[in-house]
Amino acid sequence: MLPKQILAVSKNHVVPGQGISISTIRGKSDWIVLRGTSVQTSLRVGEETQAFVVYPCESGVLALSVRLTDKRGKFLTWASFFLGIENDGHGKFYAVTDKVWVPPCGRIGQAYDSYVVVMIDNKAYHSADWIKDGGAYVSDPNLLCMYLSMNADAVDVVRAAVRQEAEKDARDQLAEIGKQLTAWGLTNCDTPILDQIAGLKKMFDAAHEALEEWRIRGKELHEPIMETLCLHNLTCYGGYSEEIVAEVKTKLDALMTFVATIDVAVDRNNFWDFRGEVHAAFHALFSTMGKNSSLIGEYINPIVHMRMKRKQKQK
Questions:
Q1: Are 279 and 262 in contact (CB under 8 A)?
Q2: What is the rounded distance in angstroms from the CA atom of residue 178 to the CA atom of residue 162?
Q3: Measured CA distances, 82 to 39, 64, 146, 311 (Å)
Q4: Phi, psi dihedral angles at 281 (to 5 degrees)
Q5: C-alpha of 188 from chain center
Q6: Rounded-to-integer distance, Cα 141 and Cα 149, Å
């Protein structure tokens, strides 16, 4: 089925800045869905409409799916295809409706009912996140259309797919980290992981200050710290609090190093590029924490709480 059999085009052959109007012609129940585009349009990817406008500044292509119905409005089928936008050689652009658009220079692609796919070096790159096997996922279908219309290179598509996979790995890694931090009694798993990290950074800084203050002031702070630890059943009163706090400090330093690694990645807004460093830091932290650290939060939280109370009294 050719585009002209299901689409109407008005104001064709326009100069840059003007719009080409495209609409359905078969019935009131037909809908156009934009699946991807390399040119500017009034429609966003995934939106449904019966009419929209294309604003071409260069040749390109749109991936469209049209929901076809009968006269009574009953669904018949989806018609999915590429609609080419070409230059007429006189500085004007028009939508090609009387023939099937074929990508130039041997580039291969296909528009489906809900996604776009291109082939590069015999490998499929598609915009369907639900396809688990076969090919690589690229979240931006417009990039795939840009590749087909010669407005992007193969390397751009491949890099996007690699980055997409890296982002998925990073999300999975963050989820694993969040679960472990919760198991250690440090965070609430219901809180977004990046919010957890921000909270941990503040908590660890406060705990580090408290431990350093104790080291400097020695026996003066021995009693209140012992009382705090005993209150939370972390040691017996009169026990070796120095050993406990030394252990806490070792684990705290490891935690602070770990959080700093994540913090750098987040600050640079590309966590996925640092997932290797974060992975290494996490396992180093896990080794330092050991098997008996399931409640490390019970050591750190009371110390932080005690320091906060001391600051409030000083005010």
A1: no
A2: 24
A3: 13, 6, 12, 67
A4: -65, -35
A5: 22
A6: 13
Nearest to 279, CA basis, from 197, 184, 187, 169: 169
Across 66-95, b (16+ Cβ under 10 Å) vs e yields bbbbeeeeeeeeebbbbbbbbeeeeeebbb
* Whether residue 253 has pLDDT greater than 90: no
**What ranges make up the beta strands (E) of the chain?**
7-10, 20-24, 31-37, 40-41, 48-49, 51-55, 60-69, 75-87, 93-96, 108-111, 116-120, 123-126, 136-137
Phi-psi category of residue 155: left, alpha or beta, with phi > 0 → left and psi -120 to 50 → alpha: alpha
**Residue 151 in this model has a pLDDT that exceeds 80:** yes
Helix (H, G, I), strand (E, B) or coil at 138: coil
Between CA 260 and CA 256 the distance in angstroms is: 6
20 contacts 41 by C-beta, under 8 angstroms: no
**Model pTM?**
0.65
Specify which residues 236 forms β-bridges with: none
Q: Could you give the C-alpha distances from 103 to 36, 61, 111, 144, 294, in angstroms and in order?
A: 14, 9, 12, 11, 58
Treating both helix axes as pointing N-terminal to C-terminal, what angle do 193-217 and 296-314 enclose, rounded to 10 degrees?
70
H or E, element range at 213? helix 193-217
E strand or H helix that includes residue 243: helix 241-267
The DSSP-derived string for 149-192 is TTSS-HHHHHHHHHHHHHHHHHHHHHHHHHHHHHHTTSS-TTS-
Q: CA-to-CA distance for 184 and 278, rounded, in angstroms?
A: 18
DSSP bridge partners of 82 = 63
Helix/strand/coil for 99: coil
pLDDT (tens digit, 9 = 90+) per residue, 197-239?
666 666 666 666 665 665 555 455 455 555 555 544 444 444 4
Nearest one of 247, 184, 217 to 307, comparing CA atoms: 217
